Amino acid sequence: MAGPAGEPSDMRDLLGDLHSAAVVVHTPDGFAVAPGGSVQLGGADPTGECYPVAAYLPPLPPESLGDTAFCKAHGLLYPYMTGAMANGIASVEIVEAMAHAGMLGSFGAAGLSLERVTAAIDRLQANLGDKPFAINLIHSPNEPAHEMHLAARLLERGVRRVEASAYLDLTPAIVRYRVAGLSQGPAGVVIGNKVIAKISRTEVATRFLSPAPAKLLQELLAAGHVTAAQVELAARVPVCDDMTAEADSGGHTDNRPAITLLPTILALRNRLQKQFGYAEPVRVGLAGGIATPASVAAAFSMGAAYVCTGSINQACVESGSSDPVRKMLAEAGQADVAMAPAADMFEMGVKLQVLKRGTMFAMRAQKLFELYRQFPSWEAIPEAERVQVEKTYLRTTFADVWTQTREFFVKRDPTVLARADVDPKVRMALVFRWYLGLSSRWANVGDTSRQLDYQVWCGPAMGAFNEWAKGSFLEAPANRTVVAVALNLLYGAGLHLRREALRQQGVTLPASVLRSEPVELGELHALLG
């Protein structure tokens, strides 16, 4: 072991080398750090100085965090993924950057046409080759035909990995995608189509952690979507390979605390693994609030196999959002969020979490939901209320929006119009959903005339990230790239875990020794080797 370093800068360098072991020793002047992790026996120079060991730190590179089985299963270097944010906010650029950096990105297919999703798939397959990526398959209770068409397109294009999100129950689409990829191999069931399920409720988690239900399988078999052999194999595997426990997050969320949600889902996974005896247990990761090195370290300390980020990626230059939105996000604090009705599940009263600073979307969307709940039709709403909605929210007449809405659904799903033609309440809901849907697009394209209507999905993680990045190069939105953010979080998590290990061994070092601020990407690559 080389001589110990007692100067703060030298100690900082030694502790910051996560690929190497380090030993903290007592010296007459206090603590010092020495590199290496071996002990020389017998032939040591008896005249040399000996230092009592205070603490030992084994190597802790970012690639060793979490469950290495997750990285092996998906062909990754790091146990880190970026979650899908709808309308292409989780863009092909984000997915490609993640793949080239040894991490997993999920494309935000929700809300996009089948043609746009297909174009994204074709680009990713052409540009990434064998590198992994995922496509979002979202539960669409108001558009089940579109969900099934997307599942069919994923199968046609040979997409081998989906992130299943916002599911309230299993649907024919997600089960079809999963089961259609099953085959019998020499060592057991071969799972061709991997599913990463994002959940926040135990009842939904239970369905994904269990084999596909027989009733759905028989329906798919009768429709010719799966084979009898695949139905038999489906009884031996869960519906998902990986499960992301989604705590308080942007977009669809149940606002669950991560500190209680993750242990609950891990315990549920263990119980169902014991019950079904799968060849490989489902791996459980954590999303929601993942925005600082401390939160990443906490997730891995609690047993997360991987971490998944969301809100902070929308503020990065590769996202499918706009510069005005990136600026708004960079100025957000933890309390600058609110819950608002969701466009895709408007009639059900489902809400999602959005940014409230600099926009009136949350308040206006809630007003539309209250009108929908209170009145049977647009015509039944008091005239003063209708005038306000048309003038301030729609900025055109209800009839004009309904014409646009009809044109949209003629192409996307004509069955929706059949219900609207006989039920004026359905028609009112579709017009209100027009506003909710376009509010996200106005934000994505940066329509400044509509800034008060921007719908920006955002959780409290954004505020935590901004506070951590303050004063560093990551404070400016123009410097935020998904790879720089991801690697800083992983590297910082390793440092955080080393600090905790020292504290648990009774060693408290000066703050100047323990790096905590973000590191420029060039220096970070050098530190990570």
What number of structural domains do the residues give?
3
Shape: globular
Secondary-structure-based class equals alpha/beta
CATH homology group of the largest domain: Aldolase class I
Q: From the alpha-carbon coordinates, what is the Rg to the nearest angstrom? A: 26 Å
The CATH topology of the largest domain is TIM Barrel
Q: Which CATH C-level class of the largest domain is it?
A: Alpha Beta
Number of distinct helices: 21
Give the strand order, joined by hyphens, for the main sheet: 4-5-6-7-10-11-13-14
Level-2 CATH architecture of the largest domain = Alpha-Beta Barrel
Q: What is the β-strand count?
A: 16
Name the helicity range: 40-55%
Portion in strands = 5-15%
Low-confidence stretches: none
Major pleated sheet: 8 strands, parallel, barrel
Q: Which quaternary structure do these chains form?
A: single chain
Written description of the protein model:
The protein has 529 residues and is of the alpha/beta class. It has three domains: 8-59 and 481-528, no CATH class; 63-309, Alpha-Beta Barrel (TIM Barrel), CATH 3.20.20; 331-453, no CATH class. It contains 21 helices and 16 strands. The protein has an eight-stranded parallel barrel, surrounded by six helices. A three-stranded antiparallel β-sheet has the order 2-1-3. A three-stranded antiparallel β-sheet has the order 12-16-15. Strand 13, helix 11 (293-301) and strand 14 form a beta-alpha-beta unit. Helix 5 packs parallel to helix 6 (172-179). It is globular and about 90 Å long. The two termini are 22 Å apart.
